[in-house]
Specification:
Blueprint lengths: L4 H10 L5 E7 L5 E7 L4 E6 L10 H7 L11 E5 L9 E5 L4 E2 L9 H15 L7 E5 L2 E6 L2 H18 L4 H18 L7 E3 L8 E5 L5 E6 L6 E3 L1 H15 L4 H8 L7 H23 L10 H11 L1
Helix pairs in contact: 3-7, 4-5, 4-8, 5-8, 5-9, 6-8, 8-9
């Protein structure tokens, strides 16, 4: 997608911003994104949603708005527009958060501290109580569920349908689904209520800056495209699963920063929800073509086989 300064100038003036002097494409995230450098030295972010499937009807802005009272650096939306009157595609303009992704800091001497801060950040998010379980839309929770069991059951049914649809070994699918059913009552009913879940909190969505003495301080949390309302342990399991996959060894540091897990059997709950996350992730990677065929060797499938045999 081509985006020009001339296209953005009228929009920026409408927002009472200084003129743009340069654009720089930003990597990471689920949408095409550019940093806008303004004439007054400030910066903004422009997100273009050329693929209609990625335009989430304002759900990212709704998600970010739920965190407005938290003292954490997050994306703030200045404008969301899908009218086609300003630009010929949906787009958003947000504040700019400094720093680089934790993922880009592999080998940094203070990396363990960044992971502990990540765990503490996740704990803060989980302090935001929500009225029901479910996915976010522009105006609230879509098809809200009153209890965790109803939410998890729906996700599990849908997840295994897609798992089979994309060609997973039927015998493996049956064994994994049997585990989810058999351990449901031991894990799922103990939810302490729905909370804000980023559902994609891993090193590529957390920013940090380095201080003069080479310490790392978190400077931003980005990409709310997956955010929803879930049980806290559900979201913690997703964070640990994705983070440890990308940066092995970070799990104990994230857990140390997060603190006590509010469940009578934390390890069983984390393992239960991780199984579901792996099933869903494999199906997603098949859907987008990262895993091109069902018989393509996959670490996810090997992990699921191990879980099925445990």
């Amino acid at each position: 997608m081509l985006v020009s300064i001339d296209q953005l100038q009228p929009v920026l003036r409408e927002l009472n911003q200084a003129d743009a002097i340069s654009l720089a494409e930003m990597m990471g995230g689920s949408s095409a994104t550019w940093r806008i450098d303004l004439a007054n030295g400030e910066k903004l972010v422009f997100k273009a949603y050329a693929d209609a499937a990625r335009w989430r009807d304002g759900k990212e802005a709704f998600a970010a708005a739920q965190l407005k009272n938290l003292p954490i650096p997050i994306t703030r939306y200045l404008l969301i527009d899908d009218s086609g009157s300003r630009l010929p595609y949906p787009f958003a303009i947000t504040n700019y958060l400094p720093g680089v992704t934790i993922q880009s800091l592999a080998g940094h001497p203070d990396l363990d501290s960044a992971f502990r801060q990540t765990g503490a950040l996740l704990r803060q998010l989980h302090g935001v109580r929500m009225p029901a379980y479910g996915a976010f839309g522009a105006d609230g929770i879509v098809q809200p569920k009153a209890i965790n069991g109803e939410f998890v059951r729906g996700v599990a049914v849908s997840g295994f349908e897609r798992f089979r649809h994309y060609g997973a070994d039927p015998a493996l699918a049956d064994r994994l689904e049997a585990i989810i059913d058999a351990r449901f009552d031991d894990v799922v009913p103990y939810s302490r209520g729905p909370v804000f879940a980023h559902d994609d909190l891993y090193p590529n969505n957390v920013l940090a800056i380095e201080t003069a003495d080479r310490r790392l301080n978190l400077s931003g949390l980005i990409d709310f495209g997956n955010a929803r309302s879930t049980d806290a342990v559900w979201d913690l399991a997703k964070c640990l699963f994705c983070s440890n996959h990308d940066m092995p060894g970070c799990r104990p540091h994230i857990l140390a920063g997060y603190g006590p897990i509010d469940h009578p059997d934390p390890e069983a709950a984390l393992r239960y929800y991780t199984l579901l996350h792996r099933v869903i992730m494999w199906s997603w990677l098949r859907h987008v073509g990262t895993i091109p065929a069902a018989d393509t060797p996959s670490e996810l499938i090997e992990d699921l086989r191990e879980m099925a045999d445990a």
